[in-house]
Amino acid sequence: MLAKRIIPCLDVKDGQTVKGTNFVNLRQAGDPVELGRAYSEQGADELVFLDITASHEGRKTFADVVRRVAAEVSIPFTVGGGISELADVERMLAAGADKVSINSAALRRPELIDEVASRFGSQVCVVAIDARLGPDGWRCYLNGGRIPTERDLFDWAHEANSRGAGEILFTSMNHDGVKTGFACEALDRLSQLLTIPVIASGGAGRMEHFRDAFTLGNADAALAASVFHFGEISIPELKQYLRNEGICVR
Amino acid sequence: MKVAIVKYNAGNIYSVIHALQRLGVEPVLTDDAAQLREADRVVFPGQGEASTAMRYLRERGLDRVIRELQQPVLGICIGQQLMCSHSEEGDTECLGIFDVPVQRFVPQRHEDKVPHMGWNQLERPKGTLMRGIGDGEFVYFVHSFYVPLCRQTAAETQYTLPFSAALEQGNFMATQFHPEKSGSVGERILRNFLEQE
Hints:
heterodimer, A: alpha/beta, TIM Barrel, B: alpha/beta, Rossmann fold, 25% helix
């Protein structure tokens, strides 16, 4: 059976991971490559590396990180953060990334999805969506959740799907960082609506939350950062728990 | 050991190069017939679209070169599909090494998304390439077309229907999944390919 995927997400700034770690005995806990390899050895199914650097120098450093991950890690990985045009996608793929996640740039200029999909294939094109549930429903946000838009989550996700996105990475801003579970209702609506896999993001606090994302939310994969980085949930324990709950995991 | 990777217009080959390097091999990427014929092992990787890939291979005479290779050859993903007789993708005549046609997945339920992407299980693994691989091991797939079960099937996987996850016939081997992205199981399969007698 096709397994549900568990995906740790690593924020990288100036070539170093940002959030602290205390879960494994790493020589350099701040080295994204070493951390990624440790997660891979623990049974992570994929990795996401997000570049949160602003400077030009930092961007070059990130490309080096991507090259080192590609050389040293034997599971698929996605890179994102600051991808604004086709040339950025090309640079990340040339550095060895398997997939590239595009967010604000796609929302601002949706044709970017068509371009990435037709040039490199849908499988490399992950469209990340940050959305918040307000009085008018789920609305999409730009620039890491800083700028609200009028765009409806489901409407945009459906358009991205039609334009050739390979996966949707949906982060609920209401749930992100709160650790009370993923946005399962919205996830379920997305997975009913779309013909591509949906990755749940935002809200992981306990192992049950991952189960619910898969059973109630029908997500294909679940992404989390701090619960893994701070050792609150270990991936082998999580996989065993999900297996016991009747969910197919690797 | 000389390992050659067939150079053609089919997508990301970095991951294959890196995976071989992790196993201590320094592969050469080449479309030179002599270099391919002289190598101890030939890897035929690929992502991409079948008809454009076949056209590229034919224009350079690589179709004949690959078909006539005597040493162990490993096709990966689109590489496996191109080694078959025909592909529904672009109604493409392929290399015909494996006498079986490539078909497109037809979703049976909403949950059956195409492409088939992610980690899925190998069933009934057998042969040289699958030596030491247990029933139920997970490997990483990304594909929309598949090779049906046939007499060359070396491992099966279930997705909407059982299909050939791996093929083997004499010196020709192939995987639909990406061993170079399949963690330790994939490493074992690549090592089997490199280390066979």
